Structures are given as structure tokens and as C-alpha cells.
Amino acid sequence: MVHEVLEDYGLTPWPKTSGSRGFHVYARIAPRWSFSQVRLAAQTVAREVERRMPGVATSRWWKEEREGVFVDFNQNAKDRTVASAYSVRATPDARVSTPLHWHEVADCDPQDFTLDTVPDRFAEMGDPWSGMDDAAGALDRLLMLAEELGPPQRAPTGAGKRSDGRRQPSMPLIEVARTKTKDEAMAALDTWRARHPAVADRLQPADVLVDGMRGPSSIWYRIRINLQHIPPEARPPQEELIAEYNPWHGYRPPDGRGRPGADG
Q1: Mean pLDDT of the chain
Q2: Which InterPro entries match (predicted)?
């Protein structure tokens, strides 16, 4: 559907594996638009995909409000890192973020694209993105669609914000654990389920939120439970975390020359 929407609005889409579990879709444009316009255009693509596939795709940023495949327009931000085409990702099997032809996407398994397999693939079939530079498009039609769709949904303000400026959850969430590894996170989830079997049996898959969080040098994991499908009188309270990993313990930010900061 992302392919269809981009083509409908005059852009040529180019897919690649992320090197993890998802896909990235690029669209070459002429350098004529501001950052805010490019971001709005990307958000508009996500909203239009969601509009055409309700319940299947979502552009909602907050995980507890999502239902379906997340179309992540928010990578179009000033503080985001980019996994470029053919970059090797930090996975045990050394996966490569690999450009694809569109006919490959439906049956693609990201595990098939690794440091061992991609060089032979490239030698055999070349670069699926070789024509990208000749396909620069325009954002005018997407920006017109943005006006037609109206203002995008924003994060809650006022009553929706906590005193620390973070989002006040609109869903009844409890936190279970913070861990260094995903295996530890899932073990903590099993412990919580054993403590609350009646509640665990009533949870839907989307109610269990396994969040990969960005730490100073690696990803850590947080487990949360959305109790929206549990009657208020049956909801367990927020308890002491089963595991409480602190990714920032002992971390010292680098000095201005990129070296670890010195004490004192």
C-alpha cells in the first residue's frame, strides 16, 4: 500500500530491508522543500496508508494506541540515525539493510540478507536502486493532500502532559520490567503472567508492549501491559518492577573531542 500511495502522488518508491524486522521505503525528491515540508509529506503518506487500510496499518506514534502495522514517518526527523543501503546491522547473523525490487517484498525474509549472502546477490543481479537518481519527484501533490486531510493528530497537551513534559498515558498501563536483553524481558513477562494468570488469560496480543529502548550504546528492553481489556476492578496495580536495569549506570558522556568525559 505504501508503494501504491507514493505512486498515486507522483513519487517512485524504492524498498529495502531495515536489517532488522521491518522495511524502509525511500522516494527520491528534488532539493526544493524545507525540512518541515518533507516531514509533513512523509506523515501524510502514513496517514493515507492508514486511511486506505484501517485496522491493518496505523500511523499512531504511541505504541499503546496502535493496531496493525506501524508506518513510521517519524524517521523523518532531525535527530534520527539512518541505516543506509548495504549497511551491516548489529545482529548475531550480521544482517544487511538490502535494496529490493518490489516483486521481492511480499515473500522477503530479512534473515536471508546477511554479510555472507548479499555480496553474491549484488554480483549476480546488481543494485535494484541503480535508477534512483533519475527518478526525482515532487511533493506538491502530497502537500495538497495534507491540506485536504486536515491537521495531523498531535501528542496530548495540557492535561495530557505530566510535569516532566512526557506524555500522560491515555491507556491504563503498568510497567513490568526493564532489562538489558530481550530474553530477560520475556522471562520477566513470564513471571508476571504467573503472578496474574486470570489477567494474563484475558490480554490480547497487542496489550503486551515489548519496547526496544535506545540506551547510550545499545538497545535495552521495557515490558508494559495495557489493561484496557481488563475490567477496572480486576486490574492489578503497578507493582515493584520484576527487573530494573539502568542503561545509564556508570555512563559518562564524551567530551567535546568525542572521548569519555573525565570526572571533576
Answers
A1: 84
A2: LigD_pol_dom, NHEJ_LigD
